[in-house]
Design goal:
The structure is a homodimer.
Chain A (H helix, E strand, L loop, with lengths): L18 H18 L6 H8 L3 H7 L3 H26 L3 H22 L1 H12 L3 H24 L8 H16 L1 H4 L8 H14 L2
Helix pairs in contact in A: 1-4, 4-5, 4-6, 4-7, 5-6, 5-7, 5-10, 7-8, 8-10
């Protein structure tokens, strides 16, 4: 780590971008949050558990939430990667659409509901509009838009509805399966329920 | 109240169907729940507040939840009435569809989010699948089916998708606005967001 990293630190992250220490803090925080819960932990608890001083942790993250955001961002990157894998596999725009949402939803369900700590953090992120949650939705919207435009080009999808209206409405009706706060109430219906919703959306896209 | 009422008591409600006393208990319970919360109240608290013995209350309701269910059923009847009023106003099947969901959603938002007590009870009902919540969804599905069938008859809606699949998928995508546990996270988007979702669903119904 002797080279100088010129990239700016992410929101809420302070000081030199020393990835080694930062990752060490995030890993230790994950372990601690998993055992004691995100809500109940303070930066002082974390410092004690890791064996760092509070001041040293504050050199890297300006609050507990900034650490939570780093964990959340890692997790949402995995969710987006689950969606991307589906897009690559899809043969047509409709197929990409279907596999994209299936990828996002199944990865979300795996991550958020097999690890209560990740769910708690994702729930805070969704409820309080944390930057990684907002960035995730922007990313999902961009990818969705690209798939819809492809389908309009290939003639698979209708072209009358303004593209932004189409994308926004799709994200609104798919939120029951994308937003962890809502997905929580839909776990019993996986994977059939999102498939039925996806089929309805694909019917709405028909030319 | 000297005439004998032959209708069977509703689930969880016991003893002779003496509406006067039953209503008196429900009204007193509403007031008490509003002040102290549904979750924290016991039947003993209620009995004390109303001035009845616990045993007397148990002659009419076999648990606190049975009283909660009576309140919930009253409330969901109002929501359904809000939807029905829309159906009556609607000129075409699409218009009835739009007004039906707008009626359900706006009445839900009014009832559940202007009175924390009603939200708490509705949330318990949705989470624990109380009979009035299940009956509400059955009722909504029946009404929806009738509107879709009308639209198929008038040629406004497509006829290829099996009707049950169509109805189920619509309720799945509209649940973000119908289920109080999910609507809670969508209040900021009212009334535009459900309108966008309804427009998407209507596109999916196009012949």
């Amino acid at each position: 780590m002797s080279m100088i990293d010129l990239s700016p630190p992410a929101a809420g992250q302070r000081g030199p971008v020393e990835h080694g220490v930062r990752d060490q803090i995030v890993d230790a925080a994950r372990a601690h949050f998993s055992r004691f819960g995100y809500g109940k932990t303070t930066v002082a608890d974390l410092a004690k558990a890791i064996g760092f001083s509070k001041a040293y942790i504050y050199k890297f993250f300006d609050s507990k939430q900034a650490i939570g955001q780093a964990i959340c961002a890692q997790c949402l990157d995995k969710v987006l990667a689950g969606g991307e894998a589906g897009v690559v596999e899809g043969k047509s725009a409709a197929d990409k659409f279907r596999r994209y949402f299936n990828g996002l939803i199944s990865t979300s369900a795996e991550l958020f509901f097999e690890d209560k700590m990740l769910y708690d953090i994702a729930a805070h992120a969704a409820e309080e509009h944390w930057p990684p949650a907002v960035a995730y939705m922007t990313s999902a919207e961009d990818r969705l838009k690209a798939i819809i435009l492809l389908g309009r080009e290939t003639g698979e999808f209708e072209r009358k509805t303004p593209i932004d209206e189409t994308c926004e409405a799709i994200l609104l009706v798919m939120q029951s399966f994308m937003n962890p706060l809502m997905l929580k109430h839909n776990l019993d219906g996986l994977p059939e329920a999102p498939t039925k919703a996806i089929n309805l959306v694909l019917r709405s896209l028909a030319p």
